Amino acid sequence: MGTSKNSFWRAKCAAMKWRKRSVAALREHCDEASLQASLPPEWIFRGSLMLLPPKTKLIIATHNQGKLRELQEILLPLQLDVVSAGELGLPEPEETGDSFAANALLKAKAAATASGYVALADDSGLSVDILNGDPGIYSARWAKIDGKTDFAWAAEKIRTAIIDKGENPQGAKARFICALTLYAPQDKILQVEGHVEGTLTFPARGEKGFGYDPIFIADQHKNSGKTFAEITPQEKNALSHRTQAFAKLLQKLNG
Ligand code: IMP
Hints:
The chain has helices at 2-29, 32-37, 65-75, 100-115, 139-142, 151-164, 233-239, 241-253, and strands at 44-45, 48-49, 57-60, 81-84, 118-128, 144-145, 148-149, 173-184, 188-200, 216-218. It is of the alpha+beta class. The strands form 3 sheets. The chain has a 6-stranded mixed sheet with strand order 4-3-5-8-9-10. Strands 1-2 form a two-stranded antiparallel sheet. The chain has a two-stranded antiparallel sheet with strand order 6-7. The longest helix is centred in the N-terminal third of the chain and has 28 residues, at 2-29. It binds inosinic acid (IMP). Residues 64, 95, 123-125, 139-140, 143, 176, 209-213, 228, 240 line the site of inosinic acid.
């Protein structure tokens, strides 16, 4: 596992070095404007070529510690200079979008505009088939009670909503969805979405992870029956919706 991960990143680095060399070679033959016009838009950020090279200052547009931990871990191999909106004390924008992508975009834009850095935002949540996708983009709001966040309460709301539909909550089909937006000032935007399929289990089990993790069993862990809160962070990161979305983001960045 470690070896295949290393070889993945070695291949990625080699591809990035190759691209930098090709761009340098192209530069010898044309001016900056024609060079940029000839490249895919994803390569162009703030009027310059964008490969998220090591040390790029990146703000993670979140105040959620669980998401922050996972995104920091996922981003680690890129060796960026990462800071979070929470650490900078930036206000949380109201999530007025009607989709994960729309909310990720407004969070990324707010953080990039306030900080001047390239921003990465995640909007994510749990989507339950029998509940027509609820809690979905309202996942955080379903857990709010009397101004506090309580995921035991949210899990119970989901369980009773499924029972009200005349269905069995145990084993109900669900998925975690994550929209990621990378945003740089001057409206350079990359958007992707990832998901992980699974089923629900009640009562909640496990102490790891965060949010709805204790009631979600990924299909890949069906045999053990372990929830996202019972597996290790590394096991979760190997298959999570956030990781899937990030892999797509890398693909877009690297052509
Ligand atoms: P938002 O993206 O800030 O709107 O919040 C998403 C909500 O979904 C939060 O309440 C999270 O706890 C929940 N959520 C998102 N990703 C995960 C996850 O990986 N595990 C458990 N809950 C999650």
